[in-house]
Write a structure and sequence with these properties.
Oligomer: single chain
InterPro entries: DUF116 (IPR002829)
Strand order of the largest sheet: 2-1-3-4
Strand content: 5-15%
Keywords: Membrane, Transmembrane, Transmembrane helix
CATH class: Alpha Beta
Structural class: alpha/beta
CATH topology: Rossmann fold
Order of helices and strands: HHEHEHEHEH
Distance between the termini: 19 Å
Pfam families: DUF116
Bound molecules: iron/sulfur cluster
Largest sheet: 4 strands, parallel
CATH architecture: 3-Layer(aba) Sandwich
Number of strands: 4
Number of helices: 6
Organism: Candidatus Magnetominusculus xianensis
Protein name: Protein containing DUF116
Length: 173
């Protein structure tokens, strides 16, 4: 109970204060967001939540730009060719029987959460979208994993499948 309460303090008080600071120190903003995501994740783990009803939410930029299959409406349209990480993420999701969705933005992500009504979320996104999404979703437990962006933001990104699997395993009974 204390971890949930403390998470509320971190997300609703500490985070806005850090973002205010980030408005003055713009080069530090992303590290502030990452710090809050890490704090949130440890507190979610401390809550000891165990549930089968997990939503795995992915950003559209994980799909490689060379792939012209439309997977935003239905990620299972993916042909699993392995040119991008979507194939393995579908595999993990099927293995653990998760709800798996791809969001193209914050409002779509919010609608998915409202429709699916998960008991916990594992979310992949950039630090900015993750931190704001985690704050918006509170008290719902969200473990956030930031994506890797070797080609810049929102383009051919990737994510550590090990980190995603570890987060899911921590929530699964
Ligand atoms: S795994 Fe292949 S088919 Fe699936 S989204 Fe990636 S590139 Fe497209």
């Amino acid at each position: 109970m204390w971890a949930k309460w403390l998470r509320g303090i971190v997300l609703k008080i500490y985070y806005p204060m850090l973002m205010l600071l980030g408005a003055f120190f713009k080069d530090k903003k992303e590290s502030f967001q990452r710090h809050v995501i890490n704090l949130n994740n440890s507190l979610v783990l401390k809550q000891g939540i165990k549930t089968q009803r997990i939503l795995l939410m992915l950003p559209h930029c994980l799909q490689i730009d060379k792939c012209d299959i439309r997977i935003t409406n239905n990620i299972y349209n993916c042909k699993r060719c392995g040119r991008c990480g979507v194939k393995d993420l579908i595999g993990v999701s099927e293995d653990k029987k998760l709800e798996l969705y791809m969001a193209t933005g914050g409002s779509v992500a919010r609608k998915i959460v409202m429709d699916v009504r998960p008991h916990a979320i594992v979310a992949v996104a950039c630090e900015r979208d993750l931190s704001s999404g985690i704050v918006d979703s509170y008290p719902l437990p969200v473990i956030g994993i930031h994506n890797e962006r070797p080609y810049g933001p929102c383009f051919n990104t990737s994510v550590s499948i090990e980190k995603v699997t570890a987060a899911i395993n921590a929530l699964c009974p």
